[in-house]
Structure formats: C-alpha cells, structure tokens
Amino acid sequence: MSKAKVVILGAGYAGLRALKSLQNKRLDVEITLVNKNDYHYESTYLHEVASGAHEPERITYKIMDVVDTKQTTFIQDTVVVVNKDEKTVQLEKNGAIPFDYLIFALGFESESFGIKGVDEFGLPMVDIPTSVAVDKHLREQFAKYNETKDESYLSVVVCGAGFTSIEYLGELTLQMPKLVKQYNVPADKIQLICIEAMPTLLPMFDAKLSEYGINKLKERGVKFLIGTPIKELKADSVIYEEAGELKSVKAKTIVWTTGVRGSSIVAASGFEQRRNRVMVENDLTAPGYPDIFIIGDCSAVMDNATNRPYPPTAQIALKQGIAAADNLESKLKGTAIKPFTFSALGTVCSIGNTEAIGEVMGHNLKGYPASVMKKVIGDRSLMQTGGMKIVAKKGRFDFYR
Prior knowledge:
Layout: E1 4-9, H1 13-25, E2 29-35, E3 39-41, H2 46-50, E4 60-62, E5 72-76, E6 79-83, E7 88-91, E8 95-98, E9 101-104, E10 108-110, H3 118-121, H4 128-148, E11 155-159, H5 163-183, E12 191-196, H6 207-219, E13 222-226, E14 230-234, E15 237-242, E16 245-250, E17 253-256, E18 260-262, H7 265-268, E19 278-279, E20 285-286, E21 289-294, E22 299-300, E23 302-303, E24 308-309, H8 314-333, E25 346-350, E26 356-360, E27 363-366, H9 368-385, H10 388-394
Parallel strand pairs: 1-2, 1-9, 2-5, 9-21, 11-12, 11-17, 12-13, 19-22
Antiparallel strand pairs: 3-4, 6-7, 7-8, 10-18, 14-15, 15-16, 20-21, 23-24, 25-26, 26-27
C-alpha cells in the first residue's frame, strides 16, 4: 500500500509550523513542501528591511534548515492553481503534483481596495523584494533631492495606520538621522505623513497605550491625517478626502500599507472566499473538502466573542499549523478531530528597537519593557518554525539596546 501524499503550500509561519509538527510525528506519509523562495522570512519584521535598519539576511533563513529530507521533499516553485476535485496542485515549472491531503498556507498579498493608482504608484511591503524596494526607492529620492532641490523628494507618505505602518514609521524615524547624513539633505525639509481613513489610531490597544505610541512618533516628526480616506494615488501625490473636500499632499515616496488579503491562488482555485480568505470548518478544512486544510492568512476563523474573524496574525498562524498537523494525523488514523480554538496571548507593536506598546496576558506594557517582549515573542516564533539552531543564529538578544 502506497504512502499517503501530504502537500504543504507555503513556508510562512503557518506552513513551516505545520511541517515541523508533521515531521515530529514521524507519520508513514510522503510530505512535499512547495514554496516560491528557498528561504523563510519573518513577515513581522519586514518593516526593519523596508526602513533600511537591517539587511534581508537578518530576518530570513533557509527552508532546508528545517526540512527533514528523510520525510520531506522541498520543491522551489510557484503555485498556479489547486485542482481541488482532481486533488492536484499545478506548479509553474514542475507541472501537476498529486495529493491525498493538502495544507494550503500561501500567505498574503497587498490589498488595493480598488483605489485608483495604487498598483502603479504605491509601494507595498509584503515580502523581502517589496521591502527592499521601499528602502531602495526612498534612498533614490533623497539622492535626487540634491540634483533638483525639489522638496517632494524628501516627502514620505505612508498610507494606512495599521501595525505595519506604525512599525515602519517607528523604525524609519530612527534611521532618518543616518539618511540625512549619508545623502546630505536638510532634516528640516523632510516630511513624514501617515494618512488613515479610520477616525482613531491603533484602536486594538488601550487608549493610553495608543496615545503613548502615537505621541512618540509625533515627537519624531510624523504628521498624522486621520479620518481622511485616500481616493487616488498619482506619481508624486496622494489624493485624500477631508471633511468632504478633496485634498492632496506631494510625495515621491508613497508606501502602501492599508491592509492585506490572502493569496490570489485562493480565488483562482475556486474556493468560496472573501478577500481571498476562506471561512474554514472548525477543523480548519475548506467547506466541502475535508482533505484540504487552509491556514494562515488565507483562512478566516470566527471569533465568537466579537462575531468577526480573528485578525490574521503570526500568533494564530502558528497555532493553526499545529492544529492542522494534529487533525491531519487524526484523519489518517481514523480518530476524532479536535475543533480549532484560539486565545490570543497578547499583541505588541514596536515603534523602534527599544520602544513599543503592547498588551500581553492582560498587562499593558510600553517603552523598553514592551520592546523586550516584542523580541521574546519573535524568538518564540523562530523556535516554533525553525528550532533551536535557527534561534541561536537569528534570534534577537539585543535586549539592552
């Protein structure tokens, strides 16, 4: 009797955690992991690459460092579509590969919300290449200022004020003195503007915590425009609405961090979805497809307390990876599956290497203690996806600065 074929799509937090869990179980199965890159990246630290604080190597490690070649075959390729009824995955280079069980964990993409000019002029920050591109673009604009003396080259607009936006601004403000010196530009001419459609900033935190974090950024020169929905992006400006009137701000660097959606492969494969997220069954499988697990950013799990899906975070993705592996094992052995449950341990948002705000296990943290907790959480995620060797190589132990 041939071994069951298990295919995992994606090597983000959810996919790698599922892989490690399955490998630890030593099941009599053939595991295939598919990912377009040969590395895993910590998406919660992309802002450090985009701001120029760190090189990409700081937040990446090789997938093969996690793969047990006795159990798992790694294929570096791009997924084209999942043929869910035929139980095959079509890859760009390797053609169709069959599966008995599929773990779909392809991650997220930038969400434009249909706003004109976003795809042409907005700089997303969703993976290593796009984050590197943000840093490269900003540096090119600063260099051009000395040729033109056009102050719009020193203007940076961040669209959206979610976690990614705030963390990027927090790190960028700390990097700005280095950029000013390197490109010999006037610090007093630099504009850092954040535009947000919602009337409040960081509403997921206690009001005093949010105020602390936002005030820190304001002290560093960030200007916030809230309750001002963006209507259009142009090559060198952002059009927004304020009190029913259209206004614009000039900027040569426009960073687009208003939100994300799941992988476009979800819709292309014909799953019932909203913003490329599938409302999964309580065992994390796709409705009508008990052999296909969907986890991470492509899944939606209802929070009964709020009657809304849980936000797609690394924390829930890691737990889904474990749960999917456990339920896949139960299906193989014919034992009862366990409904997925989730209780968030807390949330931390950095505003620089030694500054953060957070709510962890019912406690509010701010400043240096919160920044330490952010690094502890990051190291814990590294442990869950990569293991002790990866933590030793890539862990964040600079708690003192």
